[in-house]
Each structure stands twice: as structure tokens, then as C-alpha cells.
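Quick one, C-alpha cells below:
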């Protein structure tokens, strides 16, 4: 009887081990970790099947290794931090989730502070919910647009008063071009290479359309994990 219990426990650990490995390796690969490198690192780590703790440590190392590799890509770093938050939530009792979500938002802000310099077009930050049935705090901001410069200097996300269950606030943001009542882009006046958006604005007619850049990459990561909640 004792041996049967031991065997059952071993099978449970191996099943959990394989579930975590399959899910998180897929996430790491989606974030750009080379598959061959990941598999070779795993083989060289000599982790025994069923050693869930060692596997979690290995995966955490891979996240941090990828952060260092992509140190110059703040947009990708934002996605990595978010995936790390999801990993902590799902497999490590939510340790440091709030801090990691904040780092994800901060990295995304850094990305837009760099990438939006000199565009000549007035831009806004638009907030997106990542899950259905959000709390009132998150729902109230869903789809709202805010002046980009002001938003990037604010602490609006993650929502401090969020009461969403489980993972908590999973909201993110993207950047959209501001348009007038006719749907035309609004440009910064008389400056083809502006260094700041705090200048008089006027509308210029144009048929050029900018694609909305949202939080789709982060939301796709969330979808990988949400079934486990």
C-alpha cells in the first residue's frame, strides 16, 4: 500500500512537471528564446523528471537570461516581464506578481518614449482589458484614450484599486494616432521633426492611415495561461 502511494505521488509529480515544462517552454519560444538553445540548456541542467522545483528554477533562469539578451528591446522586455508575472501567479503562489506587472508597464512606457519621438503626429495612449468581467476600476478605463506624454509620466497602470480576482489587474495599453471629427490625423504644427508634443496643434487633411498598435502581444501571452486560472 505504501509503495502504491509513492508511485501515485511520483506519477503526479511527473505529470505536473511535464505540464509546466510544455506550457512554459512554449511561452519562452514565443518570446524569442531559440528552441535549440532552450533544449540544450535543459539537457545540460540534468534535471530529473518530476523535480518540479528544479524545473521552476531553470525556467526562471531562462526568463532572466532572455531579459539580458533583449536589453535593448524594451517592448519585448515588457512582454517578458508580463510572462514572468503569469509564471509566478500560476506556479509560484503569486510571488512578486505586482512588481513584475509594474516592470512590464514601465518597460512598455520606455519603448514608447523612444519610438514616438519625432513622429510629427499627435498620439494617445489607449488602455485595454486583458480579461472578461473585470472589476469596475479596470472596466472604467477599458478603451479610454489619454494624452500620451501625460500617460507615460503617470502611474495609471497597473490599476492600484483593482479588485479583479486572481491575477489582479492585467490591463495594458497601446498607442493610437489622434484624429479629428472627420477622422483625419492631427499633426504637430509647423514642425516636420518635432522633439516634443507640447506645441500648438492643427488638423491637416491626409488619407494616410496609421495602424493602431495595441497590447496584442501581451494579451496573447495571457491567453496561454488563462485556462489554468
Amino acid at each position: 500500500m505504501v509503495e502504491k502511494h509513492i508511485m501515485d505521488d511520483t506519477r503526479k509529480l511527473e505529470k505536473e512537471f511535464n505540464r509546466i515544462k510544455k506550457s512554459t517552454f512554449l511561452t519562452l519560444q514565443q518570446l524569442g528564446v531559440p528552441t535549440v538553445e532552450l533544449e540544450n540548456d535543459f539537457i545540460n541542467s540534468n534535471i530529473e523528471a518530476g523535480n518540479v522545483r528544479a524545473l521552476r528554477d531553470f525556467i526562471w533562469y531562462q526568463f532572466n537570461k532572455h531579459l539580458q539578451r533583449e536589453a535593448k528591446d524594451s517592448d519585448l522586455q515588457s512582454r517578458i516581464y508580463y510572462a514572468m508575472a503569469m509564471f509566478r501567479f500560476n506556479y509560484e503562489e503569486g510571488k512578486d506578481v505586482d512588481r513584475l506587472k509594474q516592470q512590464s508597464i514601465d518597460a512598455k512606457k520606455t519603448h514608447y518614449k523612444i519610438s514616438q519621438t519625432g513622429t510629427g503626429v499627435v498620439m494617445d495612449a489607449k488602455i485595454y482589458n486583458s480579461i472578461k468581467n473585470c472589476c469596475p476600476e479596470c472596466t472604467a478605463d477599458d478603451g479610454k484614450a489619454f494624452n500620451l506624454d501625460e500617460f507615460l509620466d503617470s502611474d495609471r497602470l497597473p490599476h492600484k484599486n483593482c479588485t479583479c480576482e486572481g491575477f489582479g489587474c492585467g490591463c495594458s495599453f497601446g498607442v493610437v494616432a489622434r484624429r479629428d471629427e472627420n477622422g483625419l490625423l492631427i499633426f504637430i504644427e509647423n514642425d516636420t521633426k518635432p522633439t516634443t508634443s507640447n506645441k500648438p496643434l492643427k488638423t491637416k487633411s491626409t488619407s494616410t492611415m496609421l495602424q493602431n498598435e495595441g497590447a496584442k502581444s501581451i494579451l496573447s501571452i495571457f491567453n496561454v495561461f488563462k485556462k489554468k486560472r
